[in-house]
Amino acid sequence: MSAPVIAIRFEEPAHEPPRRVESRQVFADLLRSRPGEWALLGKYATAGTARQAAYEVRNALDPKDQPFAPAGSFEAQSRTMLGEYRVYVRYVGGGAS
User: How far apart are CA 53 and CA 49, in angstroms?
Assistant: First the structure.
């Protein structure tokens, strides 16, 4: 009987999300250079703040989220992992016209 094969990825605990527009611009630009790949934006204090942050990134509502404009050109999802409330983002292109 062979041992089961499982996928495992080791990583450090999640970091705080970039808050300055300039930092978020660098993050968004890096995602644009790797379309379709998910990246960790950061961890949040509660599940609700993570969900709100993902919504704001997807819709580029807040001035700090303008690097993710136009709305719809990035996908963002909140996830609870190991007791951390995380937001992951990927560039999908396009967006609202």
Answer: 6
pLDDT tens digits for the chain (97 residues)? Answer: 788 888 887 877 788 999 899 999 999 999 999 999 999 999 999 999 999 999 999 999 899 999 999 999 999 999 998 899 999 999 999 765 4
State the residue range of the domain holding 29. 21-91
Q: Is residue 27 part of a domain?
A: yes
For residues 28 and 19, give the distance between their C-alpha atoms in angstroms, rounded to a whole number.
Answer: 12
* Domain contains 97: no
Assigned domain for 77 exists: yes
pTM score, two decimals? 0.85
